[in-house]
Amino acid sequence: MRFPTYKFERKKYLEGFTRVAGCDEVGIGPLAGPVVAATVILDPQSIGLKRSKSKWWYRVRDSKTTSEQEREQLVEFIRDHSLDFAIGVVSHETIDKINIQQAAMLAMRQSLENLKKLPDFLFVDGLHKIHDLNLSQAAVVDGDAKILSIAAASIVAKVARDKILAKLHELYPKFGFVQHKGYPTQAHKAAIRKYGLTPVHRKSFAFVQQYL
């Protein structure tokens, strides 16, 4: 299992930056629900040079490699050791209007703008920087596996989105949103075939379009 490090952020602090953040999104692949992003500014004073089991950040990594129970624990550590963090949520309606890639970028921008104070350097997971943003950035492919702040953001975003899907499960219990979180599992597809679509399904997605 690959664990991210804090060396990228530490290098930026040594270059003179004062608030270094990581940003990531979750929810590009699901057939239903919003896309959610988070931006996290970890407290550099709380992170040592070496990883050990006694450190709060020892298990922080890409949210896709964590269990739901572990994420719930890690998100509390992240919140307690962050200078600031925020989320952005872009609805399924907006996804259908502007496409999922643009919606993901919008969610990341929203999470950044929802911070109490903007960072002066931002690591963004993926291929693309956030457009029209007046601060230094670096886009990092697989950043959630390399950069601790991005990994932390992925966990915060994942926990936030899972809570949204749990609420959608209460509205549409036949669809099993609390289990698959809207992703195109066999169980989710079978529910669509049996019951049709809910108002929160993404109408621009190919599988969903078959049942409109």
UniProtKB/TrEMBL annotation:
A divalent metal cation binds at D24, E25, D125. It comes from the Bacteria. GO terms for biological process: DNA replication, removal of RNA primer; mismatch repair. It is an enzyme of class 3 (hydrolase). InterPro entries: RNase_HII, RNase_HII/HIII, RNase_HII/HIII_dom, RNaseH-like_sf, RNaseH_sf. Coiled coil: none annotated. GO terms for cellular component: cytoplasm; ribonuclease H2 complex. The keyword Protein transport does not apply. Its cofactor is Mn(2+); Mg(2+). Residues 18-212 form the RNase H type-2 domain. Its EC number is 3.1.26.4. The keyword Manganese applies. GO terms for molecular function: manganese ion binding; RNA binding; RNA-DNA hybrid ribonuclease activity. Manganese or magnesium. Binds 1 divalent metal ion per monomer in the absence of substrate. May bind a second metal ion after substrate binding. It is found in: Cytoplasm. Endonuclease that specifically degrades the RNA of RNA-DNA hybrids. Belongs to the RNase HII family. This is Ribonuclease HII. The lineage of its organism: Bacteria, Candidatus Doudnaibacteriota.
